[in-house]
Each structure stands twice: as C-alpha cells, then as structure tokens.
Amino acid sequence: xxxxxxxxxxxxxxxxxxxxxxxxxxxxxxxxxxxxxxxxxxxxxxxxxxxxxxxxxxxxxxxxxxxxxxxxxxxxxxxxxxxxxxxxxxxxxxxxxxxxxxxxxxxxxxxxxxxxxxxxxxxxxxxxxxxxxxxxxxxxxxxxxxxxxxxxxxxxxxxxxxxxxxxxxxxxxxxxxxxxxxxxxxxxxxxxxxxxxxxxxxxxxxxxxxxxxxxxxxxxxxxxxxxxxxxxxxxxxxxxxxxxxxxxxxxxxxxxxxxxxxxxxxxxxxxxxxxxxxxxxxxxxxxxxxxxxxxxxxxxxxxxxxxxxxxxxxxxxxxxxxxxxxxxxxxxxxxxxxxxxxxxxxxxxxxxxxxxxxxxxxxxxxxxxxxxxxxxxxxxxxxxxxxxxxxxxxxxxxxxxxxxxxxxxxxxxxxxxxxxxxxxxxxxxxxxxxxxxxxxxxxxxxxxxxxxxxxxxxxxxxxxxxxxxxxxxxxxxxxxxxxxxxxxxxxxxxxxxxxxxxxxxxx
Length: 507
Prior knowledge:
Layout lengths: L1 E9 L10 H19 L3 E8 L4 H10 L3 H18 L6 E4 L6 H14 L3 E11 L4 E3 L17 E10 L5 H9 L4 E3 L1 H12 L5 E2 L1 E3 L9 E2 L2 E6 L1 H6 L1 H4 L10 H8 L1 E9 L3 H15 L6 E5 L2 E3 L2 E2 L10 H8 L1 H11 L6 E2 L2 H29 L14 H16 L3 H22 L1 H10 L4 H27 L4 H11 L21
Parallel strand pairs: 1-2, 1-12, 2-3, 7-13, 12-13, 14-16
Antiparallel strand pairs: 4-5, 4-6, 6-8, 9-11, 10-11, 14-15
C-alpha cells in the first residue's frame, strides 16, 4: 500500500446530450476533494470521462440524423469543456468508444470473470428502461414506471450472457459491514446492505448486437452479443490506468493495486451499480475493491430531478461565464447538501452570490485591505493567540471531519463561520478608529498607536490567511486572488497589490 496515494473518480456520464448542472455538482465535489487531499500532501489522480457505448446514445444520434461516432464525439467535447468552465483540475478524461486503452481492458475484465466461471448464457424476459440501461422487476417499478425516469419500460426477451452475482452475496456483505468497502453516507450503506440481505440475483451483462444497433464492444468469442453498457462503463476505472495492457503499468500499480485509497464519487441513482455490481465483478476478476464510495444526491429544479429528457436541464457553462466559476462551485458545494437533493434556481444562486460571497467574504477582505493599502501597511499574518487560534483550530477540525464524509456543505459552512468571526473581529478592533487617531496624533503618542495598528492588522491578516487556505480547494481562483492581495504567494508580504473586488456586483 502506498502511503497517502488517492485514486478518485467521477462517474462517466452518457453523452446523449450536452452536460447539465446535475453532473457539474459531481465534478466540483470531486475536484474539491482532490484539491483538499493535495493540500494535505497526498498524491492524487482525479479521473473522469464519457460513457459512449450506450443504446441511448445511438438512439439520440438517430434522432439527430447523425452518425453515432460523430454525435458522441461532439457531446463528449462539451463534457470535456465543462472542466475548463468550472476550473476542474482532472488528470485524465477517457472516452469509452474510441480511447485505445478502453476496449482491451473491458475484454480482459470479461475474460477474467469468464475464467472464474462467473459468466453463462441463458434466455431472459424482462422490463428494460433504456434511460437507465437496466432491467427492472415489477416490484421495483412505481405505478408501472421506471422510478428514475417515470417512463414505462420496454418488454424485452432475448438470450444474454449473465454474471453470477449471487455467488458474491456473502463476500459483498462482509466487505461493506467491515467497512473494507465503505459506503458514505450511512443511509446509502444501509440501503445496499438491505438489498444484499434480501438476496442477489444474477444479472445480464450483454445485449444482442442487433438491439445494440451494432454499437459497443462485442463479447469476446460471441460477436452476436454486445457487452452490457454498465459492465463496459465501470471498466473505465481500470482501463484509464492501463489494465488492458500486457504488462502491469505504473499507473495501475500505483493507483489501484497499491493506492491507500480508491474512491468513487457517484450519484444516488447509480449506487447499486457501483456498490454491488462493480465490487462483485472485481472480486470475480481477482482485483482489489474500491475503498470508499461517496454517494451524493440530485440537483433538482422545482423539486424535480434534472434530466436531459425532461427539458429542465440547466447548462452550467453560461452560468460560469456570467457569475464566475467559483460562484457556481460555491452554490453547488454549499447550497446543495452533499448527500441529499437540492433545488437550483438562478434566484438562489444570485442570493448566495450577493448575500454571502460579496456581503460576507468580499467585503471582509475589501475593507481590511483597502485601509491597509491607504496606510501603506503590510498585512502580516499572525493570529491573536488569546482570541483567534482556538477558533481557527476548531474550524480546521470541522472542515477535516466534513471532508472525510464528503460533506462539502458542512465544510463551507464551517469556513464561513470563520468569515463571520473575522467580520466581528473587524468591528471589535476598529482599525479605522486607530487610523484616524494615528493621523491626528503627534509626538510621543504616535509610536504607541502605530504599534496598536500594526498588531490589529497582524491579527486580522492572520484570519484572512486562514480563510484563504481553507477556501483553496473549494474556490481555487478566488483563493489565489486573495492570496496575492494579502501577500502570501511566493512568501512575500506586500501592501502594494491593487485591491479589486473578487466578486463584482451584478449588473
């Protein structure tokens, strides 16, 4: 096991349409977690990509009158561009339909499960939701409809390859109960354990090539069958590391076999695939399990899940262009509870922007730094040991605890508690009163006032520095700008940096 090495992945979304703000939530959560760990000295690989070998992608391409390969390439680029719009510092982006690393890895994974005796063919009839790319039983439907898409599934009868999921019921249960495979939050862990205890059925891992429209990866040795899109897509976590190559790659060894943590960040609608199917496939193939699966909720609009087919999708790119990437990141991380659903509206985003980012954070820095600049005072960064150190230590512990459970809203709430504390300290210390007194003083009174003023700005500067460091994983551009303004970049303390609002007023 390599100490302090983290392999962190997002899910890879279908590219049957442009990205919406629901997936933006997952991206910024993953990026914040990766940046936080890097700040702790971890070696981190953040992996994302696009799920392209899906029937729903083919159907969307047909509707658009476009070749599937062209269609998915166009939309995959939009998902890649989303990273730039939101300042996501990902290490790799894998496309499952054309990346040369992917198909060999999926085939190798298939053959490993086949060698374990866990793949077999049989005929099957069931209710299939193309939106989920999943079979449902009658008991899982809501009013006869898919619980995710609220559409009636299609009746499908065909011969498929099946995976012996039932063989791994006990081993999965033990892994989850002992936290060898940790599922966060506990409510999702309990759901998965209840599912396992109710009995696991073998599941189909292929589709007829005819129904797949000839799109996807053929089953090795059975070209009339196409590997099920979820089996295919889950393999990206290994294929991006070079699993399909003849010799073990350095990336595969470092970030899968030897990594201290292998963490997946997923939406609640795909928990079963990541917490049951995927670990079982890995056990069958003789591969290590993920260490943690972080499950987040949905972004909703008017209480309804955002969906490309529901026509309520919100494009995050124009939002980032208008309000700034950090404003969008802030809203998603603080105002969408990490493990539950949260509603998005432009009005709520603007309220957070003006009432929190401008009024609380921006004004704190602006009024302290503006006074310092006018007086040509370098803002030193020395916490007041009697008042501020204990508060800062408590905030750090709160942020650290929140990060362990991927509770990003709690982490930012703690940081803004420190912002509130700093604003109160400004009122208590009244630097403007000291400046006024100093400007009016003469002779022997000036040295004492100068000492008090410098001590005031040292204490306030210490708080500003802590806020900047804590904000860095969540609002990286803002943190960098503020760090320059208080002079903590490059080890230089400066009072001559031009002070400009990091969050301009909306027009």
